[in-house]
Amino acid sequence: MNRRNKAILLLLLIGGFLYAVIQGFVIPANEEKAEQYRREQQEPWTHDLKTVLPYKNPYMGNAGNLINLFAHLPLNELERTYELESERFTVNLHYKEVAAEIGMKELKRKLLYNSLAAFALIDNLQVIQYHFTDATLIARRPDVEHVFPGPLAELLKEERWQEDVQNKWADEEFLEKSVETVFGG
Fold this sequence. Notes:
Blueprint: H1 3-40, H2 63-71, E1 80-85, E2 90-95, H3 99-102, H4 104-121, E3 127-131, E4 136-140, H5 141-147, H6 158-164, H7 172-183
Parallel strand pairs: 2-3
Antiparallel strand pairs: 1-2, 3-4
């Protein structure tokens, strides 16, 4: 074999090795990281606030903005439709799921987080009604403000959100009282 053929063969072997490394290790590792991030977005204590900040808006009447906001919050994997009642500053989310099958305790905790995020980001939103096939849960801004006192928009700084919101999801007593205050038990 002459030198040129040896060089081509060596390059082919290196290329094959690199292809195997990329296909066998790099791509699966990246896919696992993406899947881990997706799972983290389903839990209030690990949700990435930066994913919802672009949806800050003074008015709830922008349907596209609200749809995108809820598409980036926990429970976004559940199929739903939206109904806006602009005159009442209310958004209705109609889920095609049975709340009891999800688990009411977990469901209410995630909806508390979603409600807080929505009220903090949408200035004039006053009521969110979560309709499931077997239950309706209603979150009102004054109740959420009672649980998280002060202007909700001030919580939207990443360190404040982590400290004053996400860290509280480890406190069972706080969560039980908060869910009771917002959803009535």
